[in-house]
Amino acid sequence: MSQPFPVLLREQQPQNWSVTPNADALKVLAQGIWDCAIQTRQRPLVVLSTAGPLMGVRVALEKYRPKGLDPHIAFLPQVLSFNDWLGVAPGAWKFPKKQTDLERWLSVFVNLRKHRVLQSWFKAESEAGAWGLAQAVIDACDALSEIVMPQLQPELYALLESHTLDADAWLKKVAFALDQAVAKAYVGLSRKVVDEESAVLLAFWRHLTSIGDPVIRKHLAMAAHLQASKASTLVARPFIWVQTADAKPVDHELIEQYLQSYAQWAPVLRVNLDWQSVALWSEALCGQDAEGQIVTADLQAIEQIESNIQSSNHKGWNLLAARRFEELAWAATKAIEAHLMSGKKNIALVAQDRLAARRARALLSRLGSSLRIRDETGWKLSTTRAAAALDSWLQLIRAPKEGPSANVLLEFLQNPFFDLALSLDKSPQVCIGLIAQLEDILIASQAKSGWETFRAAIERANAYAASNGGAPNAHLLALIDFVQNRHRAWQYTSVDCLSAYKHLQKNLQETGMAARLQSDSAGEQLLKVIESFDLNASAYQEVKMRLPEWLSLLKTVIEEASYEEVGTQAAATLSILPLSSTRLRQFDAVILVGCDEQQLPAFAEPPLFFSDTLNRYLKSSTIAAQYIQQARDLSQLLISCQQVDLLWQSKSKSGEPLRPSAWIQRLQAQLKDWKVVEVRFKPYEAQSQPIEMAVSIPGQNLAIPLSVSPSAYKALRSCPYRYYVSSLLGLRKAKEFEEGFDASLVGQTLHALLKNFFQALKTEGNKAHSTIHNGQEARRQWMQEQLTQYSEKEFERLISGDARVLGTLRDWQKQIPSFIDWQLKREHDGWVYHDAELPVGFTLTLIDQNGVEQAIRIAGRADRFDINESDVTTAAVIDYKNQGIKKISDRADHILDDPQLLIYARGVNENATVAHLPGREVKQAEWVSLKSTLDKGEDKIIRAHPVQDMPDMMQQFSDQITRDLNTLWARKPMKAFAPDSVCKHCEARGICRKGMW
Question: Measured in whole angstroms, how far is the alpha carbon of residue 450 from the centre of its chain?
């Protein structure tokens, strides 16, 4: 039980009072504070060592206010957390300017340049790793300052008046303290290594420590408080110090020194927590000894623990085990819902397993506004969509001058905070679908990176749209120009902090992100973090660094920032918090998720520079101290709350069994009737339908296309069901960028340069004095030079956007001599290039199921037409393939299933004028490989593969296509019967069930 409140005596010594941290702790504490006010007839100052119980103490003070108070003490006693109390120190505005975390990190960066001895620790680090190491260095320097500062109290009082301090004296004292700690911790180890580490760390401390550091300002604030109390002409107020958690030894010494000094002028009450009747484990009761070791429990302590366990309200403790992670999150959600339905309004979810707590929170979002969720676990600002939007711009900034990848570009353009209409200065109606259109173009052309690659893809798409009755979209190029201009402005070797900050702010304004972020809760907090990079006119504004270093610093600062949710009113509140935040707080019910042996207890990451032993001698936090504190926190939670659900995952990711925490197992040994409840969810039951063959009949309301392309007809031939899904239903798999450089973009480029080359060859042949007429070798030389030049010109833009394309160009250039030989041989046989990229086709007249005639257009774009000089009635069609001759040969074996050349041939034969071939008939068709094997010798290189038995193939094709399209218009069943080779790459695999019949 808590001790009675003491009678305050003027002994000029702090008095002690113990409060038992059970369900009545806040009530007893509030009544004691009012008792202090009544005894001293003053409004006491109450300072809590941690901020968690702050609101609970204030509420309790109001609730248990005594009646008939003296008007002098009618106001609530002033209650502050330790950090808040330091912030309101008298004359704090006179203190040296406080350095922000950002400024301290920059000081590490600046001093690294000045002192070569420090650079060795950072030279192997990436940009992000270096800033993390900078934070570790600063933490180590603060630890050294903590151990030395209590020895410098006289200098602090002098500093308050003279603003000067002897840094050399500080360094000597910290060097002596660290040397003593090293001597004790590393007895028998090589002093050479330790001495080098100590020397570097001391060098950091000497160059980084300033009177603007938080540790030094803390001591200044305490000195200012003490000095103000001493100098005051009024009677100093009573001071109540509430030790809500075990302090580090160095902090304990600091506050003890302050309390002893303050007690000279006013009553001082030291409030400690009494674990005698609360501790459920021996470590929670006995604590640690002077050496920092956990005290072994004696017989009396063991009996006390057993008594505490048996007298506890363990009937309200539920131990729930779930096999899998998702079941664990569901169990936590169901437990919270059960408490809400039972009328509980104030519930805590202790996130020992933070991932499971996050998942449970997501599941609880179904409850909407009826449940207010307060997350106190430090939700990172970097996990919000606002931070993701900013990161998409930072990723684009980091791209090389040639341009970003298409994925990076699209990720930025598709973020919800980018204002497209504002950026292009167009109306929102004009911008509808613009980014989706850009994505379709880039994916279709596999334009994966580089500004010039993007432009080339857009220009080709616009040209195709213009030549096929579509509308080119000029806004696409304007969008690329807008982003590239802002990307180009960042292409400097180094930047200074101020100019980089201003430029980023300008980008946010120009893209409209600033306004949209300002209207978002997380975005508003993100903008405030960015504003800290203004650096308030400090010298750090002029610090120069490489752009990747500055961007990594910005991302690191955002990563360190926490997102604070906006509070809302609701019928019930769920607080998601760590175990340490439950101290002296009251909840109707508590759900603790993550009670397995791997997560409870959980220890903080060990310091980078100090071992646990060294930390003990430096009077800092140790593993043993953390273990004891968590045992006490859990004891307090179980004792003070009537309903506690302890959840854990009984199977690890690898399937290995996980036991509950050792603390829980020790309780189970005492509480024989405390059983584990296995969480089992009833599986969903439904009657399955037998899998049938993938087949469908086009409905009467489903329109049959009046035009069919060669690729669509190929799909119909390969699998009618595939054609039904893709062409009739219009379902498409979402396209993505493939690995490597895509062959389709290479093919587009080769087709374009070959058309330009042959048009130039045709023009050159009409010049009477051209060198092309000076024999075959001269013609070969001209053709090879020109084709090489056209190739380099066509590939130039792609290479500027993606350097990987250079290898593709070199591969094609190796093909040029052999390709020229093939062309010369073809010319020798009488064939002359006529035209390229011509749209040709024919019309079929069919009778549908209602007896109505329907005209279907079969059309495509042919790569090239040749004419024969010795026969004015003959023409040939050629299709370029960026494939080896083996694949072309396989294609020829199934030409009726892929009759692209036959479609072009029939289109010309039925309407030769469209192809500018009046009076001629296509009697020859062949595929030409642009990727022949060159290592077999010139005589063995096969570049072309003609269609055999052309007249017979044409007749078979005509009969086949008429039959196929009649079947389509008759709306007969469309079955899936394609071979496995087709199914492997079919876009309809998610719908079709072929292979499972």
Answer: 24
Question: Which tokens in the block code for residue 914?
Answer: 């469209």
Q: What's the one-letter identity of residue 360?
A: A
Single-letter amino acid, residue 274: D
Distance separating alpha carbons of residues 90 and 92, to the nearest angstrom: 5
**Cβ partners under 8 Å of residue 850, min gap 6:** none
Under DSSP, the state recorded for 694 is -
Residue listed under structure tokens 């893209």:
511
Helices of type H across 532-646: 547-560, 612-617, 623-640
The per-residue pLDDT for range 760-782, each reduced to its tens digit, is 998 988 888 888 888 889 999 99
Distance CA 992, CA 997 (A): 11
Cα(255)–Cα(250) distance, integer angstroms: 9
* Closest C-alpha to 835, from 762, 899, 767: 762
Higher pLDDT among residues 684 and 509, named by residue: 509
Whose tokens are 């200074």? That residue is 496
Sign of the CA dihedral 912, 916, 920, 922? negative
User: Do the beta carbons of residue 827 and residue 869 sit within 8 Å?
Assistant: no
CA distances from 35 to 208, 243, 269 (A): 47, 19, 12
Residue 777 one-letter amino acid: E
Q: Are 305 and 295 in contact (CB under 8 A)?
A: no
Report the helix count and the strand count for the chain, using DSSP H and E.
38, 22
Reported residue count of the chain is 997
Nearest CA among 833, 912, 935 for reference residue 880 = 833
Q: Are 835 and 865 in contact (CB under 8 A)?
A: yes
Whole-number Cα distances in Å, 702 to 451, 730, 989:
42, 11, 22
Cα-trace Rg, the chain: 40
* Angle, helix 127-148 to helix 191-208, in steps of 10 degrees: 90
Pairwise CA distance, residues 111 & 118, whole Å:
8
Bridge partners (DSSP) listed for residue 380: 562
Q: Which residues pair with 862 in a beta bridge?
A: 838
Is pTM beyond 0.70? Reply is: yes
DSSP sequence for 428-454: HHHHTTHHHHHHHHHHHHT--B-HHHH
d(CA 553, CA 535): 13
Distance CA 791, CA 332 (A): 64
38-52, 132-146, 570-584, 830-844, range with the lowest pLDDT: 132-146
The 10 Å Cβ neighbour count of residue 474 is: 10
Instruction: List CB contacts of 653: < 8 A, sequence separation 6 or more.
Output: 325
Spatial strand order in the sheet of 346-351: 371-375, 572-577, 346-351, 589-593, 644-649, 317-322, 676-678
Residue 808 vs residues 447, 459, 817: alpha-carbon distances, Å: 14, 21, 16
Bridge-based pairing state of the strands 317-322 and 676-678: parallel
Look-up of token digits 């309790």:
60
Residues 6 or more apart from 763 whose CB is under 8 A from it? none
Reported as a single tens digit per residue, the pLDDT across 263-303 is 988 899 999 999 999 999 999 999 888 777 888 888 999 99
What pLDDT is stored for residue 186 in this prediction? Answer: 45
The sheet carrying 239-242 orders its strands as: 15-19, 268-273, 239-242, 45-48, 78-81
Distance CA 14, CA 8 (A): 10
The answer to whether the beta carbons of residues 638 and 589 sit under 8 Å apart is no
In angstroms, the CA 558 to CA 546 distance is 19
Using alpha carbons, select from 931, 854, 105 the residue that is nearest to residue 549. Answer: 105
Between CA 648 and CA 626 the distance in angstroms is: 21
User: What torsion, rounded to 10 degrees, do the Cα atoms 289, 292, 297, 301 define?
Assistant: 60
Dist. CA 31–CA 25, nearest whole Å? 10
Under 8 Å CB-to-CB from 599, ≥6 apart: which residues? 352, 353, 661
